[in-house]
Specification:
53 helices; alpha/beta; globular; Glutathione S-transferase Yfyf (Class Pi), Chain A, domain 2; 1020 residues
Amino acid sequence: MIPQISHVPNIVQLVATFLEALKAQGFTGDTATSYADRLIMSTDNSIYQLLPAAVLFPRSTEDVVLIARVACEESFNHLIFTPRGGGTGTNGQPLNQGIIVDMSRYMNRILEFNPEERWVRVEAGVIKDQLNVWLKPYGFFFSPELSTSNRATLGGMINTDASGQGSLVHGKTSDHVLGLRAVVLGGEVLNTQPMATVMAEKLAREDTLEGRLYQKILTRCREQRALILEKFPKLNRFLTGYDLLHVFSEDMQTFDLTRILCGAEGTLAFITEALLDITPLPKVRRLVNIKYDSFDLALRNAPFIVEANALSVETLDSTVLNLARKDIVWHSVRNLITDVPDKVILGLNIVEFAGDDEELIEQQISLLCAKLDALIVQRQEGVIGYQICQDLEGIELIYNMRKKAVGLLGNAEGRAKPIPFVEDTVVPPENLADYIVAFRKLLDTYRLSYGIFGHIDAGVLHVRPALDMCDPQHERLIKILSDEVVALTIRYGGLLWGEHGKGFRAQYSPVFFGETLFNELRHIKAAFDPENRMNPGKICTPVGRNETMMQVDGVTRGTYDRRIPFAVRNDWRGAIDCNGNGLCFNFDAHSPMCPSMKITCNRIQSPKGRASLTREWLRLLAEQNVNLQQLEKQLQERTRSLWTFIGRVRNSWHASKGEYDFSHEVYKSMVSCLACKACSTQCPIKIDVPNFRSRFLQLYHTRYLRPVSDYIVANVESYIPIIAKAPKIFNFFLRRPWIRKFSKNHIGMVDLPSFSSPSLQQVLRGHSAVNMTLEKLEVLNIKQLANYVLVVQDPFTSFYEARLIADFIRLIDKLGLHPVLLPFMPNGKAQHVKGFLQRFASTAGKTADFLNRAAKLGIPMVGVDPATVLCYRDEYKQMLCKKRRGDFHIQLVHEWLYDILSTLDIANNKSNIESWYLFAHCTEVTTLPNTPNQWQEIFSRFGAKLENINVGCCGMAGTYGHESKNFENSMGIYGLSWHPRLQNLPSQRCLATGFSCRNQVKRVEGNSILHPLQVLLKML
């Protein structure tokens, strides 16, 4: 039995009193003080970990004003505050031990739009891609680009002055900020915008906080203008923290306080709104993907490419490319980056041309390609081939692969992972190749592997050395390497931070600025935040205070993770390996990634959140000397006893009375998971939450009782075959209102589907498919078996959609083959989902034995339901040893049909050109990304047109949507993606491959939709 975990850091009384005062004065947002909530905010996309005191989620600027005003009451003047956006920063910018103010949950509205003047006004929590999706129909986009654009907030981009691909043309975020609304401690609101210097001087004479700020900044930036011009490097990607250089225009006639706040990393004020300029979408975009047999030569080739007037030049090394090849993302780009015969691609330059003049762009590409052809013929400069991508879809796929490179590096083999801390150095582009040679030599000195990608047109490369942060010797290298890279970048005329801001690295600012100019930054900090309460330890400390800055070798996640025994870390790698890249925060409702996060907007209910909580749970158990591996082994051998049951009853009673156990917080996070497994493929690190979730649930319930619904779900495959023998009787009772009410209130299940009536056996009575047995097949010879197909049953379609299985058997008949319906064997997926792992192992073992026997016949085995079929491929392999699992392979309908297409004699009648619309099961399409394409080819072979509809999860996920506690979220998830898509299409032409999906559509829309195979049957 796992022990109770109650020794966690509690919220301090002063913070609790502050939150009470805040609520009493009208704060409308959320407050979060649980250990789980604070843990989620203790990390970002960096190596660091700092536990905050509490988290606030304001709903408006008024809420932020209230926070800032109450914070300055005398009793609270020791509290510190840190603004937070998407948490995608790589240098710990939003990490601190005070109160986190998260703008991303609610402050995500697009407030105003003026297409004529080309600006948009937004709240700080709006996500970059969210804004661009909204702007696209109007022909505009917000141009600063970054790899985390599908989860990074605009407030975060402004605070770090973010930039990325295309910055030579489009610049940084600050170049596109027309004005800001910001709140300083005390509650005063600043509305910044460019103004005539004489107007700023007038404001500076006013006896207000705003006036004093203008007076201080005007004076100091004027006095130090010559030094600023001398010291600030002439680099496209230069990030200062407080941009003293651009406060004045070049002629000193215009002043803009906005430039001080852009890049301030939340150390001066809370940014709540921004007025942004927007850029017309280019009418023409082209990519040239240039392949090299040497990464060094790919870098040295950059100036030649930049001279071709390209918009941007991105580069990837072989480490990143090889990781991409192993990821699901490669499926989408493999035809756009094909291999070169007899050559190995060791570097890739992605060159983009964009604009409105198609003729000019074609000329530029032709000129570049002519030069590349010459280099290929002459075997010079490492060029071994290139491909041109002319369609927008392909271009976006290439960039999606490039963006995923950050996370993919975290999936490198071994315990040492390429990590960020010196990964965004910038040097003049002409120095880049030599600089990288020196950088690589430095890493080779320490025998470190690494991955490299970046923006060679701007001189920025992301170099991530591979370190095992659980190894104290590797952790010490953080400071050693940082010192050496600082010296190296200075030698080549560059900076340590060229893209991702300073964060914990601000300790090196005096080295680059010099003490005099660095002291000016401290004066700016003192003007806004004299008591050092806004994100202290970042950028600089205010003049007059001597607090230490954050250090690059500060507290890291590895400091905590190494306290978990190595064997446990290795055994629970799915949770331990999460590197915080945050791809699971993807805002896109039509992406399958983590539906629970999308509907709740609570990061506890995301793969990253669940991994973080599990890591801490493992650490706390290790502190109590709990041997998890031994405990799990004992579970396999332990028999049930009255005493263990009494113990669970007692513990559950204490829990109901409010007795704290951190395991309860982990449990709440885990049970909100739909077990859709999108994370296991979409996450670059392949964080498989359902896998470690089931293990956690198994251990949790050694201490606490299970809900009744768990037993009903886990045993569904044992009682359904019995019920299916008298479906009308059970359907009659299921439809009674009092039964439904009892089920909802006391069993925890709602809207249970009706059983098939007539049953499958009744529908197929007398058909050869049910008369032919495995024993009869085993006596046939190979030639006689050639035209047979084994249909593998699942509990959903067989007992709730018998007509579908019957249609599949008829389809096989129509194709001139002989179907055989195998007897129903439990699959056990529900047992795995609920954490009944011993039962699942037993079920899987027995079923695997039977399926391996069937597989010896050497004929196709086909199943209809994706979730069940994929369970044989995934969970069975995880649970069973290789010998017990065997080699049986069950195909899905489309896989089998695709394999035999060339052998089929089908009349191709294309007279019906009206499209069908495919809604693929989310687990299926993430695990088997080619599914939609294969269905389209199958339909085409049958003379029909099929269009794939991009949707996320339907919200049903097996029995998840039938459980009372999940009903509201299930409906909400369906409403995010499926409902709006279906509303715009004829329902009679819509098709779904998943049983859960069809069940959910019927429940919500009131009408059934078909499986694609049923349409094929009609065509025949």
